[in-house]
Amino acid sequence: MSIIYQAKSIRTMNPHLPHATHIAVRDGHILAVGTKDDMDGWQAAWGPLELNTDFATRSLLPGFIEGHSHMMEGMFWDYHYVGFYDREGPDGTVWPGLKSIDEVVAKLKEIQANRKDKDAPLLAWGFDPIYFTDRRMNDADLDSVSTDCAVIVLHASLHILNANNFVMEAADVKGADNSEFIRRDENGKPTGEFLGQLGFYMAMRTTGINLLAIASSPETLVNFANVARQTGVTTATDLVNPMPEGSEKPMRETIDADDFPMRLVVAFQGNSKEPDEAVARMQELQESNSDKLRFSLIKMVADGSIQGFSARLKWPHYYNGAENGLWYIEPERLGEYLKAYTKAGMQVHVHTNGDECTEVALDKIEEALRAHPWPDHRHTLQHCQMATRAHFKRMKSLGVGVNLFSNHLYYWGDAHINITMGPERAARLDDAGGALAEGVPLAIHSDAPVTALAPLFTAWCAVNRRSSGGVTLGNGTQNISVEEALYAITMGAAYSLKMENEVGSLETGKRADIAILAEDPIDVGAEGLKDISVIGTMLGGIVHLNQGRD
Amino acid sequence: MPTLRKIPLTIISGFLGSGKTSLLNHLLTQADGRRITAMVNDFGALNIDAELIAEKHGNQIALTNGCVCCSIGDDLMRTFIEVMQQDPLPEHIIIEASGVAEPTRIAGFASVDPQMRLDGIVTLVDASAHHLHSKDPHLADNYAKQIAAAHLLVISKTDLADAETLATLRDELRAAYPQVPLAETMHGHMPIDAVLGLNADAPHDLPSGPPSGPMDHNFVQWAGHLSPVPRHEVIKRLETLRPHVLRAKGILTDCDGAYVIHYAAGRVEIEPFDGDASGHFVLIGTPALPDNEALAQLF
Predict the structure, then answer these.
(1) What is the Cα–Cα distance from A378 to A122, expressed in whole angstroms?
(2) Which residues of A touch B77 (CB under 8 A)?
(3) Sign of CA dihedral A508, A512, A517, A521
């Protein structure tokens, strides 16, 4: 059975035929792209093609590819969303945004009042303090919700959480250990705010909720796929997963089900085992590859985050004088892993945020390539937010690609100008224009759940470079065009995953993975990109529609 | 709520190649009935004799001497969760930090865990490579933080440095951290009691008579019998012995009742003791400790 879908416009990302109005789909693949007349020629040999006009007023693009996300995005939907913006859950329910700390507290009180089991831990997520500058949430806020059960609020960044005194007493938070990861008031009393992994650990140890098990459950995976699907994504990544022995089987079963609406590329956590064992484990995982599930990447994390002051910056380090950040792995060990994976022909994506870390990662990639030359390794730097033009030149020479964290421009752009990097360096934050100018293969990402997963929003960030405070970062050379941004969230990301021959553009023979949009993003232009309504997706020819969109 | 005895956490920190694994190996062979759980980066490097492995399960290896080794595999939080699910719980947790870890970050886990307390941070300083590590273009700051965080500094690989280098290093560390005990080791040999303290779960086993005198590898031990003495007074006396005292433990009494005191390089932990306090008190220190007579007088 073949179906011709008629659309108002089709943006193919195929330079030979960038614009079309009809696309024929057969057996999960694209039979033809072009005009109505172009379709007719196929019918002689391939039989009658049925015309479908459901999307005749819509715009079709290649299904979006999120090259840096985490399936953890799907784990919180059983809990309560208290973020600033409205957010749509995997079942289509819209959770309204809460515009002040008082609104968050009021919402939590309402939940507590209405739920049956009032002693169970009350967990909320998505809280984003960057919008509330007058004060920080504290233990008194959450004690007002309840003093008889655990009340825990995870921040949107996932780097911080707030807890009430019930939790702190259960954890027996030590007064004597002056940990810098426990925020304190002027009297030295903990305020209920915990930084880094500590908060998560405390939440698990005191409530018995195993967030780690939930993070890798089939339900989480399905939720993740549905959240991504609603933003037009047909292929996403789980960009770091330790994949314990046996975990691939349930994952494969979940993903291969017909109603699972997304392809998933899993990046194996590169230093979860010693190099030899890790290579062997990766080879074993690859036996579970299917049309929809791929184990094709290794992820290495080399430093922390800029806004968390844990990224490694070159001198003079942080603008506000904070001490330099952290290495998450010894540079020497990073080099050993890169050599082992390069030798084995395994593509590595390296998380580097600060410019010092980017430079060291490039040194280590160069050493690995000198030892084990590999022309199309396609090792990629992920985030790489502070790269200079000099770094991009070197990446071009080494054949290294980049996937920039463009959403940062919006969420933390102001903080980078005023606190972490200062104006001059912040101008080059996530310099997509620079990467393209120097000839570096480019993708852009959300790092969901760290920021909201929505490729059109990510594209908007890279095109406009505007912070949440309304400031434009840079002088224009760092911006990319709407066309370039759309390419980055389709073919650019496909190339970074070595899937450019299968997905990322709409052309004969490729998979029928399509984003169905209410408007043509090229016509809408730079300003409106993020507001384009996503009607649904097609994955391998199967249509998945969002509820209530037009 | 009944007070549970908290599991002490010891963090072994130091540059890649500074001898952390050797020290850990050596500690595990001295476990002698203590159920130690060691969180390590790499089983392979531990070089555990196959005969000593009782059971291998996922990322945990149970040893025949009751100890357990857990591979961290880049996920410290997950490993802590797994360790705290062990049944029975370990008596002591040692973590072999990565060469770039900030030990104070790891210590934070103990701060928020109702069943864990920080026993101490031990940082190894490689005598043969200190001059390189302290000037490393990317790691020097991190290295300095590891040293600054230490409750016990150990100069390792002393056999690989010449006498002058060693003396300079000693002076440098002594000057920078006058309050922190400074020990030395070759091939990771250190008495377990000096690193982890006297067996915390077996207070009755405190040696009753003196094995006062020199211990293995440049450490001395002093044991005495203390009549009832207020806890703050014991702490005060111990403070006068810094930095030469590494560990102390006593089962003592004061007007508030019997108590066990653990002292580890400035960190004090006091727990109530059920039973008659014996008054036993043991100190482990460097040879720079005052002599037995002076100690007997002090206490």
Answers:
(1) 44
(2) 197, 200-201, 212
(3) negative
A370 touches chain B (CB under 8 A): no
pLDDT recorded at residue B51 = 79
pLDDT at A175 exceeding the cut of 70: no
Instruction: Give the residue carrying structure tokens 């696309």.
Output: A23
Compute the half-sphere exposure of residue A460: CA atoms within 13 Å on the CB side of its CA: 19
CB of A507 closer than 8 Å to CB of A30: yes
CA distance A493 to A502: 12
Asked if A329 lies within 8 A of B75 by C-beta distance, the reply is no
Fold held by A76-213: Diaminopimelate Epimerase; Chain A, domain 1 (3.10.310)
Domains in chain B and their CATH numbers?
A: 7-192 (3.40.50.300), 208-298 (3.30.1220.10)
Q: Nearest CA to A318 among A426, A413, A407, A410?
A: A426
Give the containing element (helix H, strand E) for A184.
strand A182-184
Assess whether pLDDT exceeds 70 at residue B203. no
CA distance A246 to A254: 14
Residue B299 has pLDDT above 90, yes or no: no
The residues spanned by each domain of chain A are 76-213, 217-539
Token digits of residue B139:
């790691």
How high is the pLDDT of residue B200?
A: 47
What are the counts of helices (DSSP H) followed by strands (DSSP E) for chain B? 10, 15
Please tell me the distance from the alpha carbon of residue A254 to that of residue A97, in angstroms, as a whole number. Answer: 31
Cα–Cα distance for residue pair B215/A97, rounded to 1 Å: 66
Chain B, 36 to 55: residues with Cβ < 8 Å from chain A are 42, 44
ipTM for the predicted complex: 0.88
What's the rounded Cα separation, in Å, for the pair B133 and B146?
A: 12
Tokens of B287: 């040879």
**Coil, helix or strand at residue A20:** strand
Task: Identify all chain B residues contacting A206, using CB atoms and an 8 Å cutoff.
Answer: 114
Tens of pLDDT, residues A123-147: 999 998 878 878 999 999 999 999 9
Confidence of residue A425 (pLDDT cuts 50, 70, 90): very high
Pairing of strands B257-264, B267-272: antiparallel
Name the least confident of A228-237, A311-320, B252-261: B252-261
Tell me whether B75 touches chain A (CB under 8 Å): yes
pLDDT 10s digits, A472-490: 999 999 999 999 999 999 9
- Interchain proximity B74–A271, CB inside 8 Å: yes
Torsion A49-A50-A54-A57 (CA) sign: positive
CA quadruple A51, A53, A56, A60: dihedral positive or negative? negative
- Using a CB–CB cutoff of 8 Å, tell me whether B114 touches chain A: yes
> Would residue A183 be called left, alpha or beta, if left means φ above 0 and alpha means ψ between -120 and 50 degrees?
beta
Kindly state which CATH superfamily the domain A217-539 is placed in. Metal-dependent hydrolases (3.20.20.140)
Enter the tokens of residue A533: 């309504």
CB A498, CB A294: distance < 8 Å: no
CB contact under 8 A, B110 and A177: yes
Q: Which pLDDT value is given to residue B209? A: 43
Mean pLDDT of A309-321: 95
